[in-house]
Amino acid sequence: MKLKKLAQMIALIGVVGPAIAQDVQADKPMQRVEITGSSIKRINVEGALPVQTITTDQLDKQGITNAEQLMQLISANGNGADNMTSGNNVFGADADRVSGGASFASLRGLGPSATLVLLNGRRVAGYGLSGKSVDLNTIPMSAIARVEVLKDGASAIYGTDAVGGVINFILKTNYEGLDANITGNFTEHGGGAQRRLSLIAGKGNLDTDHFNVMATITHDKNERLDSSQRAFANGFQPGRGLSPDTTGTPAANQLTGAGSALGTGFKMPGDPNTYLQAGLLSLQGKCDSVEGMSQYQTNLWKDVTSPLRSTYSCAYDYGGDYVMQLPTERTNGVARATYQINPDHRVYAEAVLAHTNSLSILTPVQISASFASGNAYPVNGPYYQDLSAYIPTFDKTKPILYKWRGWPLGDRTQKNVTDTARLLLAAEGTIASKWDYKLGLSHNQSRSTTDLVDGYAFTKPFYAVLGSGVVNVFSPPSAGQSQAAMDALEATKFYGRLQHGQTTLTQLDGSVSGQIFDLPAGAVSGAVGVDLRRESYQFAQDVDATTILLAPGNANQSRVSRNIKAVYAEMIIPVIKNLELQLAIRRDDYSVIGATTNPKAAFSYRPTNWLMLRGSANKGFLAPSFVQLYSGRLDQELPNGIIDPVGCPTHPGDPRFCAIERLNYFSGGNPGLRPETSKQGSLGFIVEPSNNFSVSVDYWAVNIKDRILNRTPQVILANAAQLSEYIVRDANGVIDYVNAGWINAAGLKTRGADVGLRGRGNLPGGYKWNASLDGTWTQSYQFAEFEGQPYKEYVGNFYTRDLYLRWKHNATFTVAKGDWSAMLSNLYRNGYMDQVPNAGKGTPPAGFNPRVASYTTWGLSGTYTGLKSTTITVGIQNLFDRDPPFTAHNVDEVVGAGWDPRVGNPRGRSLSFDVKYKFF
C-alpha cells in the first residue's frame, strides 16, 4: 500500500486498550507497559476500550480450574454449543469444528472463529481437527498471571478472528522460588470430581542476576458425570411438554413394511385406524418396566402425515442418557528463560506444551431394520416376537422389521487426544531511551487424533449378525444377551484410529513504538509493526468411516497452507487537554483470499476528574478457514422430481424444469469464499465519584456482512431468487448443477451494553471490602439465513445453536482482615422463551410453560494465609444447590434432557479447596 494512502487512513482511525503489564512495585516509578489491543507502551490507565481483567486470585476463590469454566465469568461470552458437554452432539452444518473433546470461546455470541485467543499477546495454533479456533483446553491455566478480555473488535491490530473481541492469557514471568499447588472440587451428589496438581519453579532476578529461568507443570483430571446421577436430567416429563421422540428403544419396537410380519400397516380389534409401529411392552402397558423407556406420547409428537404412527410404541429417553461432564485429563507445561543484556535490552525463549486426553461418550447406535440391509429378524430366530395375540393381522411367517437401540455394543466412545506446542524466541527493550521495540519468532503446532474405543461396528458384518437372529433385540438390558450373541457382536466391532488432523502456525512479528513529537496538549506517540505468518492444515481419515456404523466421517484434506503479510500503525494524539484520540490501521494480505485494510478510531475525554467519556469505531474481517475453503467437494445427486422454482412457472409441464431427474449438486469447501466483514463500535462512560467507587457503561454495536454458512441444495433451490449465484444454468436456462456447502450467505447485527461496577471501602473492626459486577445486556441479535431474507430477532428466544440472553452478570463481594478473607460470588443468566414441543404440531399439555426460568447460583469461599508459606482456600460452589432451569427443547437439536448445558451447570453444590505452599 502506498505511504500516502497509509498516512491518510491513520489520520481517520485508532485504537487503545487497558494495560496488561506486571504489577509495579510501590517503591518504583510508574512504568510504561504494553496495552492489550495496542503496541504502544504507556502508563497503565483506564483507556478508550472496555476491558475485563480476571486475576488468578478470583479464579482460585471461585473454584475455576480450566479455561472453559473461565468463560462462565465473562458476561460478554455467548451461550453456545462451544463447551465439551454441548460438543457431545451435532449442532448443525454451520459449526466450523469437530465436536470431540474441544472447548471454545465465543465473544458476543459471534462464534468461536470470531474470537481471537492470544497467549502473551501472540497467536496460538487452532484446534488440530478443525483447523480453526483455539481449543481452550490447551491453555496452561496454572501458569496464568491474569486474563484480559478486550470487548471490542481489534482487526486493526491483530487481523482476522478479532471481530467479537480478544481474550489474552498472560503468563507469569520472572518468577523466583518453588511453589506447589493442589486443587480439588467434589460434588455433593456424586460424579464429576475435578483435581489439579501443579508445580512452578524459578531462579534468578533480572535486575540483580540479569537472568531468570522458570518452569511450571500441571496435571488436571476431571471425572465423568452421567445424566443418571442428576434427577433434573429427565427427558420424560410429559406434563411439562417434554417426552422422547424416538422409538429406537433398548427393547425393540416392531415396524411395518411390505413383506414384514406387520405388513404395510395394521388395525386393532374394533378400531378402524391404521397404525405403523408396535411394541410388546406398549401393548402390555409395561413400557416403564425398562429403565429409560416410557409410553410414546402421541399427543405431543403428533405426525401430521401419520398422526397414529407410534400409538402402540415405547419411547426411549436417550437425552437423559448423555454424559454431562466428559472424563478428561490434561498435562500442561511452560518453560521460559530470560537474559537481560542490560537494563534496556532482554532476550528470552519460551516453550508451551499441552497434552489433552478426553472421551466423548454417546448413546448406543440406533438401528432401523430393513430388508435391503439384511438385518430383519428372521422367522426361525430363537427370539422371534409373536404379536398375533394383540394384532390379528400379524403374520408370523414373515420376518420382523424393528427399531432398536443397540445396547450390547456399548456406548459409542471416542478417545480424543490433542498435543500442542509453541516455541518462541523473542527480544524486547528500549533504543536510545526513547523507542520501545519487540521482536519474536514462534512456531505453533496442534495435532489431534480420534480413536474409536467402544460402541462402533463394521456395518455389513454387524447387520449380518442381527439378521442371523442370534441377538435378542427384543430383550431389555437387564436380561442380558447370550454369550454366543456377545461373541458374534464383538467380532464385528471396530477399535482403533479413526482420524487425525494438524494445524501449524509460524509467525514473525515485530513492532517499534515511542513518542514522535510534542503538541500543546502533550506528546504524540506512535507505533509501527509487521506480522508475517504461515498457516497450514491437514486432515485424514485413517479408516473408511463409511464402513463403520454411525462413525463420524469427514473428507480427507491434504496439507494446505497460506501466507499472511501484514503491516500496521498506531498513533495516540492528545488533541486538547483531557481529550485523547487513538488511531490504528492494518493491512493484511493473504496469499489465497487477497488483501484487506481495516481501520480503527477511538477517543477518551475527561471533562472532569470524575467522568470519562469514551468510544470507538472500527472495521474488521474474518478470513474463511481451511475447512470452509478446501474441505472435499463432493459430487452428489438429488432425488428425481426436483422442481425449478424459477424455471417451472415459465415452462409449465416441461420436465427439464418441473420434474428434474438426477440433478447434480456439490457440497463442501468453496475456494471462492470472501472474508466476512464487520463494522462495529462502542460509546460509553466511566463515572468515578471517588477513588473507592466507579461505574462504567459501554454501548456496543456489531454489523457483519457476507457471513460464511453451510447451506444444503434444498435451501438454495427453495430460495433460488436470492441465491441464484449458486445455481448454475446452461444456455437454455436449465439447471446444470447446484453449488451447495459453504457460501457467503447473509448478514448479522447485534447491539447491547456492558456494565461494570467497582467498589471498595472499610468496615468497622478493621475489615476491608471489595465488590465488583460485570454484566452484559443484549438489546438485539438479528440475522438472516441468506441474503434477501428478513432479519429475525433471537434475543430471549430459543435457538438451536446459541442462546442470546437479555442479561447476564458475574458479581463478587470480598471482605478481608489480616490473614483472613471471604468471597461471596453470584452468577446470573436471564430466562428466555422455550422451544415449542414438536413445533406446535402436537398438543402441548396444560402444564407447559413457554418460558425457561432464569438461572442464578451463589458461591462462598474463605482464604487463610496465616500458616507459614501456605495459602488455603476452601469454597462452596452453587451454595443453594440450584438445578439448571427446566426446558422442553428437543434433544435431537440440543443436547440435554430437561436442561440446557449452554446455560446451566449440572454439577450442583460442590466443595472446592485450593492449597498453595511456597518451599522457598
Classified in CATH, the superfamily of the largest domain is: TonB-dependent receptor, beta-barrel domain
**Helix count?**
11
Binned strand content: 35-45%
- Give a count of the beta strands, DSSP E runs of length 2 or more: 48
Kindly provide the radius of gyration, computed on alpha-carbon positions and rounded to a whole number of angstroms. 30 Å
- Determine and state the CATH class of the largest domain: Mainly Beta
- Uncertain runs are 1-29, 89-98
Number of domains: 2
Helix content: under 10%
* Inertia-based shape: globular
Structural class: mainly beta
Most strands sheet: 22 strands, antiparallel, barrel
How does CATH name the architecture of the largest domain? Beta Barrel
The CATH topology of the largest domain comes to Maltoporin, Chain A
End-to-end Cα distance: 55 Å
Average pLDDT rating: 89
Report what the structure shows.
There is one protein chain. The chain is mostly beta strands. It contains 11 helices and 48 strands. The strands form 10 sheets. The chain has a 22-stranded antiparallel beta barrel. A 5-stranded mixed β-sheet has the order 3-7-8-5-6. A 4-stranded antiparallel β-sheet has the order 14-13-21-20. A hairpin with a 3-residue loop joins strand 38 and strand 39 (about 765-785). The longest helix is centred in the middle third of the chain and has 10 residues, at about 460-470. It is globular. The chain folds into 2 domains: about 10-225 and about 325-360 and about 415-435 and about 495-630 and about 675-705 and about 745-920, TonB-dependent receptor, beta-barrel domain (Maltoporin, Chain A, Beta Barrel); about 245-315 and about 365-405 and about 455-490, no CATH class.
